[in-house]
Amino acid sequence: METCWDSVKIRPRPQLVQNIITDAVVIGAGLSGLLAAYELQNRGMSVVILEANSIMSGISGHTTAKITAQHGLIYSRLYDKIDEAAARRYALGNLSAAEKFKQIIDKEKIECAMEIMPSYLYAVKDERPLENEAEALRKVGIHTEMVSDTSLPFKVKAALRLDGQAQFNPMKFAKTIADKLTIYENSEVIAIEPNYAICKHGKVRADYIVMATNYPIINFPGLYFMRQHRERAYVKAVKNVSLLDGMYYGIDGGHSFRNFGDTVIVSGQSHRSGKKSLENSAELKRDVGYDYPQGKICYSWSTQDCMSHDGIPFIGRYSIHSPNLFVISGFNKWGMTSSMLASDIIADMIFNKPNDFEKLFTPQRFHITSTKGLFQDIGQSVVGLGSGIFTKKERKCTHLGCRLKENKEEGTWDCPCHGSRFSKDGEVINGPATKPLKRSNT
After folding, report:
1. Which residues contact 388 (CB under 8 A, 6 or more apart)?
2. Are 295 and 242 in contact (CB under 8 A)?
3. Within 13 Å, how many C-alpha atoms sit on residue 432's CB side?
4. Contact 435, 217 (CB under 8 A)
5. Residue 239: which of 202, 220, 265 has the closest Cα?
6. 245-249, 280-284, 297-301, 339-343: which has the minimum mean pLDDT?
7. Are strands 263-272 and 115-123 parallel, antiparallel or unpaired?
8. pTM here?
9. Whole-angstrom distance, CA of residue 306 vs CA of residue 315
């Protein structure tokens, strides 16, 4: 499935075919990996990135690319379930990340179609959740405005406006950043040992290892497969339509909207990976036709996000037993600012510099109010693993053995437990699985 970003071509990099030594190695050349390596290198470290496929070929290349600190109803949830300090740190961290995007784009003179625009949350059924969100933001010192008129092609109950946010072309941004870094493509990490990232034809010795693979590829320690899940969503780019005055995100069944050139990108119909596919994609196409009857779909693709059990990304040490191994994961659909924020947190930790946001995002956190989400993710893993016991080996995910579901819409086999995806030929499309399926699965 072609995305609207695919016209930007990033030059290929060589495969790792030797043993090398560096200060830090980053696993994954998506946006979070590129930004982590860029920040560490700017602080004086030698850095190498190892990418299993090609630069931005994973989830980062399928984003809708909104640079915003407005992440759904996150602030009212944090305020109610944790405390005011958590909501304030989340807001300040993501607002600073949005500003840093602007600074880097200006410093590196990156032509990436960046536009400063307001971001809106909108409700089509009940405006009260927006009022609660506005109140939580007011208490942490962030100004928003409630409006009733929008440029959306349908009426809304209300919308919550946050000014000074942005949208951009992520592939053009990544292309410039990647040109400043040492990257090896087609260099899948098959094992991690203390201070070593090992590929098939070479290995990297480093003092620090940063895992930026979207979903962590190591199960123990860390147990990330028990603390987050994957959700798929569908995206359509539509032309011959009226453009919007900002970026929009629906909180009660509505979709996500943003402009790109002369098109509007619409995304939505998200569901847990491996549960549905065909009907959700068809429903989004139907909704787009209803909202834009004169529009023409020019691009169509899907994406997949890691959803942490408590709605907060995992940024920090992989576990208490691995002081020099770091992880970046669980962005909950908001990978742009989260990636930038992660680059600063990880770099500060490596350089032993205090960071105001480290505690909130640490993977070692525990909030008693988030146990419901934790138990749900654990339960889904148990169900999938149980189903895998009673199925053929060639239908089992090579990650932990969950039973795979056929995705007829995209011609893939998907894991409902942790979101691994395989082609009809059994090759890995998305991790955390690293080994292909048996050929008898074709």
Report:
1. 396, 397, 400, 401, 402, 403
2. no
3. 26
4. no
5. 265
6. 280-284
7. unpaired
8. 0.89
9. 13
- Residue 156 and residue 148: Cα distance in Å, rounded? 7
Asked if pLDDT for residue 27 goes beyond 60, the answer is yes
Query: Partners of 236 in the beta sheet?
Result: 266, 300
Query: What percent of the chain has a predicted confidence (pLDDT) above 70?
Result: 92
Tokens of 389: 């016991």
pLDDT for the residue 87 = 97
Q: What is the residue type of 298?
A: C
Residue whose C-alpha is closest to residue 312's, from 275, 248, 357, 259: 357
Find the largest Cα–Cα distance for the chain: 60
Q: Which two tokens stand for residue 421?
A: 């995806």
Measured CA to CA, the distance from residue 415 to residue 405 in angstroms comes to 6
Cβ burial, residue 425 (10 Å; 0-12/13-18/19+): exposed
What does the CA dihedral 105, 111, 112, 117 come to, rounded to 10 degrees?
A: 70
Alpha helices by DSSP H, listed for 108-169, are 128-139
Beta bridge partners, 266, equal 236, 257
The pLDDT of residue 246 is above 60 = yes
Beta-carbon contacts of 113 under 8 Å, excluding residues fewer than 6 positions away, are 168, 169, 172, 260, 261
DSSP string for residues in 290-310: HH-TT-EEEEEEEEEEEEETT
Closest CA to 58 of 111, 5, 7, 115: 5
- Please give the Cα distance from 314 to 415 (Å, whole number): 21
- Kindly indicate the confidence band of residue 426, based on its pLDDT and cuts at 50, 70 and 90: confident
DSSP SS3 for 121: strand
Q: Which ranges of 108-246 would DSSP assign to H, the alpha helix?
A: 128-139, 170-178
Indicate the pLDDT class of residue 400, thresholds 50, 70 and 90.
confident
Mean pLDDT check: name the lowest of 40-49, 136-145, 310-319, 365-374.
365-374
At residue 372, the 3 state secondary structure works out as helix
Confidence of residue 410 (pLDDT cuts 50, 70, 90): confident
Res. 99: pLDDT tops 70: yes
